[in-house]
Amino acid sequence: MMEESDAPSKVKTNELFADEVNRMAQLHLRFALCVLTQESIDQYDFKDKKIPELTRLALRVFCLKELMRDNQFLYESGFFAKGANRLMT
């Protein structure tokens, strides 16, 4: 059906890979959220010096929960080997 279409190749590609592009954009936003939050914690001048440490800990827990919730992309990229998800449970 795609080959029979008169639509430009860009349109065909967007229709074929739209779900993957959307998923990768969502994953990128989650990653950017973690990185930007870490940078904000590092740059902010907290009155109590324990707050950055506790905030970083909360951020790490959040990031690990995100990885536990959806870690398929780590396998697809080759970051995790087969069976590595058992280490996070």
List the helices and strands and how they pair.
Layout: H1 9-43, H2 50-69, H3 72-77
Helix pairs in contact: 1-2
Residue runs with pLDDT of under 50 for 5 or more positions = none
Broad structural category: mainly alpha
How much of the sequence lies in strands comes to under 5%
Shape: elongated
- Biggest β-sheet strands, sense, barrel: none
- The H-and-E topology, N to C, reads as HHH
Gyration radius (Cα, Å) is 19 Å
Rounded mean pLDDT score: 82
Q: Tell me the distance between the termini.
A: 43 Å
Total beta strand runs: 0
Tell me the count of domains: 1
Helix content: 55-70%
Number of helices: 3
Note down, in words, how this protein is organized.
With 89 residues, the chain is mainly alpha-helical. It has one domain. It has 3 helices and no strands. It has helices at 9-43, 50-69, 72-77. Helix 1 packs antiparallel against helix 2 (50-69). The N and C termini lie far apart (43 Å). The mean pLDDT is 82.
Tell me briefly what this model is.
This protein is mainly alpha-helical and about 90 residues long. About 70% of the residues lie in helices and about 0% in strands. It has one domain (about 10-89).
